[in-house]
Write a structure and sequence with these properties.
about 325 residues; alpha/beta; Nucleotidyltransferase, domain 5; 2 domains; 5-stranded mixed sheet; 10 helices; globular
Length: about 325
């Protein structure tokens, strides 16, 4: 059997990444050009700046990915690319590069949903047992997904307002922490005590929906009121209380999903899956299911995860024409 190589491109936000996957699970390269240092001064991602950075490095990333994988363009079977969700300008840069490369090398183009990529990064840890439930937590998304079989995704619960990663960054900005704030808050939370009574929205409602806007507002109000009164708050305790509220919400909703959908496997993926507090709670509280979390290097945005998802789309003969357009608000299609 001839080996199959897929080149994958990811540029949905502020990481330019290109990877090469051999067959189903051998990630030969995963080049990531991060823009974090450029966006720190703004306290968040500036779309126009992100797009320009992608333009500057995308070609070099493709070259480096092929070189590290030890193959040439002629060895590839397909090119995969993220076409949504994400920042439209950033997506278009990656898509333009993927289309040009596919056309020049007579290769089929595989469209990949960014969130499917996060989910399928779990394939790097172990072969997934279907059906399964996934908790996807990132800067732009918080959702529970039921996966009946490879490539079939159905959202069974999602946030009605802020994504959990977004809440971390906004709270971090208020405390004066450097963007992105998730890792710093997690570290500080482990040094503090949960002494502030922050709200746990929607935990008593019989659904799988999330809400973090009220928690974010409660935190900001507490912090601002203390500043106005000249009171000094303990940063570690603030972080501990905020993270405890977030994790209580995530764990309760995930447990409800596992009760409603009695699967054997829970996948937890996305940038916030790198949170050590979340990993600890999952290990302590989900003991009757197989919990699979991608390694830290595959939790953030990267092309390796896009390649894993693309391998499934390749098997399903899911290819796109060169007029494929970016879909910044792309969501999983409901599978009835």
């Amino acid at each position: 059997m001839t080996d199959r190589y897929i080149l994958a491109i990811e540029s949905s936000c502020d990481e330019t990444s290109v990877a090469v996957l051999k067959n189903e699970d051998q990630l030969l390269s995963n080049i990531i050009a991060s823009q974090v240092e450029s966006h720190k001064r703004f306290g968040g991602v500036v779309p126009e700046v992100a797009s320009r950075h992608h333009v500057e490095v995308i070609t070099l990333c493709i070259q480096d990915a092929l070189q590290e994988a030890g193959i040439e363009a002629g060895d590839l079977r397909a090119v995969a690319v993220t076409y949504g969700p994400g920042l439209v300008g950033a997506l278009l840069v990656g898509m333009a590069a993927a289309k040009a490369f596919a056309w020049a090398n007579h290769l089929p183009l595989i469209p990949v949903n960014h969130m499917a990529g996060h989910l399928m990064a779990a394939q790097s840890v172990a072969k997934l047992d279907y059906p399964l439930v996934a908790l996807l937590v990132s800067g732009g998304h918080t959702e529970l997904v039921y996966v009946s079989e490879p490539g079939n995704y159905r959202i069974i619960g999602e946030t009605r307002d802020d994504a959990v990663g977004e809440a971390y960054d906004k709270v971090g900005r208020v405390m004066g922490l450097t963007y992105p704030a998730g890792k710093a808050i997690d570290e500080l939370a482990h040094q503090g005590r949960d002494i502030y009574d922050f709200p746990r929205a929607m935990i008593k409602e019989d659904n799988l929906e999330f809400s973090f806007s009220g928690l974010k507002s409660a935190f900001i109000n507490l912090h601002h009121n203390a500043q106005q009164k000249g009171e000094q708050l303990c940063l570690e305790d603030l972080c501990a209380s905020f993270q405890a509220a977030v994790l209580d919400i995530l764990m309760l909703k995930t447990k409800k999903a596992l009760k409603a959908y009695p699967v054997k496997t829970l996948v937890v993926a996305g940038g916030v899956a790198a949170n050590q507090g979340l990993r600890e709670r999952l290990k302590e509280e989900i003991t009757d299911r197989t919990v699979i979390i991608p390694p830290l290097r595959l939790c953030g945005d990267n092309a390796g995860m896009i390649a894993y998802a693309a391998a499934i789309e390749y098997e399903k003969n899911h290819f796109a024409a060169l007029d494929l357009n970016a879909k910044p608000s792309l969501a999983f299609e409901d599978i009835e």
